[in-house]
Amino acid sequence: MHPWIGAGHDDRRNILEELGLSSIDDLFASVPPQVRVAGLDLPGSSDEESVRRSFAEMASTNTTMNSLPSFLGAGVYRHVRPSVVDAVLSRAEFFTSYTPYQPEISQGTLQAIFEFQTLISRLAGMEVANASLYDGATALVEAVLFSHRTLRGKRNRVVVAETVHPLYRSVLATYVEATGIEVNVLAPGPDGRIDPAAARAALRDDSCCLAIQSPNFLGILEDLPGLAEAAREGGALACEVVAEAVSLGILAGGGSLGFDVVCGEAQSFGVAPGCGGPHLGFFACPEKHVRQMPGRLVGQTVDEDGQRAFCLTLSTREQHIRRAKATSNICTNQGLMALAATVWLELVGSTGLREMATSCLARSEELKRRITALAGPWRLAYPSSPTFNEFLLVGPGPSSELVDQLSAEGVLAGVPTAAWGGSWPDGILVAVTERTSASDIDAFVGALGRVG
Amino acid sequence: MRRRALRTEPLIFERNPHRAGRRGYNLPPMDVPEVDPSAVLPAALIREPDPHMPDVSEMEVIQHFHRLSQLNYAVDEGLYPLGSCTMKYNPRLNEEVARLSGFSAIHPLQPVKQIQGALRVMWELGEALKSITGMAGVTLQPAAGAHGELTGILMIRKALAARGENREVVLVPDSAHGTNPATASFAGFRSVEIPSGEHGTVDLGALDGLMDEQVAAVMLTVPNTLGVFEHRIVEIAELVHGRGGLIYLDGANLNSFAGRASPGLMGADAMHINLHKTFSTPHGGGGPGAGPVVVSEALVPYLPTPRVVRRDDRFELVWQDPDSIGPLRGFFGNFLILVRALAYIRSLGADGLREMSEVAVLYANLVRHRLKGTYHLKYDTPSLHEVVFDDSIQARHEVHNTDIAKRLLDYGFHPPTMSFPLIVHGALMIEPTESVAPDEVEAFCDAMIAIAREAETEPELVRSAPHETPVRRVDEVRAARNLKVRWTPEE
Amino acid sequence: MTVPIELLYNRSHEWARVEGDTVVVGITHYAQDQLGEVVYVELPEVGTGVDAGDELGTLESVKAVSEFLSPAAGEVIEINERLEEEPNLVNDDPYGDGWLVKISGSTEGEDLLDAEGYQEFLEQESD
Fold first, then answer.
1. What stretches of B49-186 adopt beta strand conformation (E)?
2. Domain A84-342, classified CATH 2.60.40.420, yes or no
3. pLDDT tens-digit series, residues A61-74
4. ipTM over 0.95
5. C60: nearest CA in chain A?
């Protein structure tokens, strides 16, 4: 008898008796014999202590970002995670409940999502935002499909900056393969940024979307106003992808710079790195396009007594109703992660977010300064290009080997770009956050000195 | 029992409008030189401070979300019999292990030797899912069931292309969940409906007529959305395979037969599994879920990347493979959800998983037995872990399934799934799952019977429900007509 | 409830009012009743060419989306812009202010029913 199964032996017998059956097997008579199995080829059940011990052991073999100074980024960032976030997420009323299809007993979830939509739309500089998507990579996909739909399917090309995260671009390639949308990748200039004139030329007059990430994969800030203008001239929708959401604490969201979509990854807002998931995609756009927006949406309304209430709305765009004509494949949002971000943003506050972003910037600039001051083989790949909290570092050898050597020197130095070749030198992407202390910086610089 | 007062909770933006300098969190102290952003960043990119973003204290946040939580019904409160959602208990052990910093504080792009424990979790889960389903290959990457469906259909598409075939059609039963045809059309196929026969199962004659060399795949849910097992599944698979098509199974209802039947033996080529259904990971108010896909030998080459592979006692990642369909999202999958599912599988074990489906089916049949006669059962065929009634008896008194659902809220239960599948008008799809004690299932049946009586004697009470919830019936039409999806300062 | 005598109907519950070279199109009372309260109407662009039976646009209620089809061949010359702010007109006055589009074209040769024929069709449908 397992504790997670509610019926005891006697319970089962009593119910079978009530149903006039002699054995549970009778209930499975409709399962044809050819597909039956007598049991599973798995170990038997385990008590809680044993499971706890075996998982603790597996967890302990991993090197966490708390155990050594860590500078890993490339789309997953190590920001503060206040204890309040997990305390709220652990409330059963939030984490064990379902999608709020019955609004009368889900106002907690619905109001939290409404607050999330408000926070994201304000950060993005847009009028509306949805209830979240799976992650940054799929958010880019949704932005491309959205652009295609909004222009009524008459333009089948999209131009995507090469400096959009290579992983996001691979996911886009998987998706568009079936749709007939052609993706053209636009290389950055020697400063690691996309030139608006090059973007305009690449768009021609048959593209539906120009997708730009800022800060980009190399950590560099793109010329967003210039690129928005290029898209406008080309008759395409301008889409900003954000992989490091804390940057919105000090940088303007694309909506206020002329972009038509701001989307990306909000894992930085209180979601654990968690070896890559679950994370938190977001999507924001002007109100005039709200019906083309993918994913779930919470709207404000009233109940029978005129009291303010919230409910899911515009569900008819979603696939459980529109079926073959749905706006997208997304059926769910990342509900609990959106809640985490909502709690985090409200706790940190607008002042706190600005301070955090400024802290990230200051620490990153300090590390860049210290590296530049080092004699020796290490150098910044793009010393003159503006960055926020991440930059590309080139050293005396292949990036993966350097990362291994620096680990041995006690520093998780960053993400090697070896796996993602492109119009940039092979190097290490170094990310810095408000959690990177002065002694972490010393450790990093010290380790660089001992390697190469 | 007296009720206690529940205050309505304002939006966070309605707090501290006069900017009283409240603080919710203190950051680590600045131990590096300060920087003036305008000195370092291009001026055009710098954000203007937004006076309408909140600044509140820590306790305000705690109280805000505590009060909001009190407005929600949850699985922990009572029966949540949503058909096809499998709202079972979310074990606290799962929550504990998923929060180990050895799992939560690792980065997916660390060198593989630094995250062997994480790769082991994924490897073991993959092997367990293959074992449970009798299938040859697996991907843990998809973030949800629908995501898994798309993954499976894209693999099927690639496999057929590799065979040099250009099939354009996917067949889907009329009882299927909307994600099925949506996925098919998204992947570039045209979806065609197979009508259900008189028992609510696939009409084999109709399938025979529709299955030809234009059909790439048939998407089936087993048991189907009525909880009825497709008892001719082997024949169906043979028919489809015989004409060069593949079988996609929607695994949403795996809770009904895990440990008893094998999708591999059914002839499945791909099947997604909803970890947030069968394998107890929490629904989270609408995610995150996880939708791993198990595949037959034929589809193994096309599995997404990156993949976890085992070499002796080490684990590695394969990021590139020319036959793969590529990645469907960033990184490996919803890893912290995968951890929970593995903990569940290890805890239940082979014997526990079999018990799980037994009791799930037992309870659903108890509900069927108790409510039959009171509510109309359109299809008399035996059902497994869920049962679909409809409101046609109550409709004679102008009481519809929505009204019954809203009245159930007054009895302290979450309603069943409504108006699905589409082939049953006014449907009420009930899936109790195996988690609760029998008392809870019985209390639910008593409530449903009481409401049926009310529908006859006091229909207006049912039509005007709910009466006891934090808000009364919500005007969803107005929400769609006067669209307001964020707070604005003019309030 | 009887349907207006002067209109023509098709089997997908749209009506057509012929005004010289123009055909006014809407959905019937039965259709709006089935749909429920309309929250949004998606109308075609003026200038779109259509054949009889083509999808002209969609009508959204809270729970469903329904296409409406053209009963005539021709070109869309006018759309009912009031429906953007007042989609409820489709429910409240389906044969009058709730009209959907005007097409320059003709219903000639199309397999449409007259009022009596449509009434009979409705009675068969509900059997």
1. 137-139, 169-173
2. no
3. 999 999 999 999 99
4. yes
5. A316
